[in-house]
From TrEMBL:
Keyword terms, alphabetized: ATP-binding, Kinase, Nucleotide-binding, Transferase
Domain (Protein kinase) ranges: 26-274
Residue numbers spanned by region Disordered: 273-303
The keyword Kinase is annotated on this UniProt entry: yes
The keyword Metal-binding appears for this protein: no
Name under which the protein is recorded: Protein kinase domain-containing protein
GO molecular function terms attached to this record: ATP binding; protein serine/threonine kinase activity
InterPro entries the record matches: Kinase-like_dom_sf, Prot_kinase_dom, Protein_kinase_ATP_BS, Ser-Thr/Tyr_kinase_cat_dom, Ser/Thr_Kinases-Pseudokinases
Native source species: Rhizophagus irregularis (strain DAOM 181602 / DAOM 197198 / MUCL 43194)
Residues that, per the record, bind ATP: K56
């Protein structure tokens, strides 16, 4: 990794920043993520073990919303901004999440029910902060935008986010299985908090399955969107807590008015027994995943 050298003034504090006068670009070997026009690199401050993530080429809206969303324990922390020599756009200096993405975490770890429920509560807590405290709609919730740091959820990436009162929130974007199907029905559909709630429902199912939704489906992305628009949803995993199943099924209802608000999601999560995951109905069973047919069926400007 390369070293952070100079300082950056943000608010009233001076923060370490990349030594731009000596650096034309960030080394490709340090890249840890990319999507759309942005790339994320990892770096450390000179002569210390402090590590930061540098997200390159963000626009003013993303920088503003990242700063606005700051100061919640389950949201990746903003540390400053910087600009590389010869480049017009700013880069964000962010907290580094040592556990990688939720997607990788779920695939590589065996997670007990109590931790599945804890992760669900932490994701919902971050969304509650955005919706009710900051007036932000995330707009692109999926497991690559949910990070893990020291075992704790860190929601990230506000490149597709909007303020609730924004007039510029009708552009469809995201990863198909997590997108509000209203977008597939109406390309000019206006994103709302209920779009995030739909994504939460799919994420909650994924916490229990530890696999990507609709991985067993073959065909292109347009075909998958067609099936989701016409009611396709994943089946509950066997022995999942029935209250948790009912919650995520309400979250992914087709009609936004039938989806709960985030404070209702929090309330229902808090009412679920942490110790009892074996509350299931006979109808609940895991749909088999056929191996080797296809990878995640999603096209995204951020995945």
């Amino acid at each position: 990794m390369f070293a952070l050298r100079e300082t950056l003034i943000i608010k009233t504090a001076r923060l370490p920043c990349v030594g731009l006068s000596r650096m034309k670009s960030l080394p490709e070997k340090n890249i840890i993520g990319s999507g759309g026009s942005a790339s994320v690199y990892v770096t450390n401050w000179k002569n210390t073990s402090t590590i930061y993530a540098i997200k390159k080429y963000v626009d003013n809206k993303e920088a503003f919303l990242t700063i606005r969303a700051n100061s919640h324990e389950n949201i990746i922390q903003f540390r400053g901004v910087t600009k590389l020599k010869g480049e017009k756009k700013y880069s964000l200096v962010l907290e580094y999440a040592d556990g990688g993405t939720l997607k990788d975490y779920l695939r590589n770890s065996v997670i007990e029910w109590k931790n599945q429920l804890r992760l669900a509560r932490e994701i919902a807590s971050a969304v509650l902060w955005l919706h009710d405290e900051k007036g932000i709609i995330h707009g692109d919730l999926h497991p690559k935008n949910v990070l893990i740091h020291k075992g704790t959820i860190k929601l990230a990436d506000f490149g597709c986010s909007y303020l609730k009162e924004s007039d510029d929130n009708t552009r469809a974007h995201g990863v198909t299985p997590y997108m509000d199907p209203k977008f597939f029905e109406n390309p000019s559909y206006r994103i709302t908090e209920k779009s995030d709630i739909y994504s939460l429902g799919v994420l909650f199912w994924e916490l229990t399955s530890r696999k990507s939704p609709y991985k067993y489906k073959t065909g292109d992305d347009c075909a998958l969107r067609f099936h989701i628009l016409h009611g396709l949803r994943e089946e509950p995993i066997h022995n999942t807590n029935v209250l948790f199943v009912r919650l995520y099924q309400k979250c992914w209802e087709h009609e936004p008015d039938n989806r709960p608000k985030i404070h209702q999601v929090i309330s229902e999560l808090n009412s679920i027994n942490l110790e009892n995951n074996n509350v299931s109905t006979p109808e609940e069973s895991e749909e088999s995943e056929e191996s080797g047919k296809t990878e995640d069926l999603c096209l995204s400007d951020s995945d």
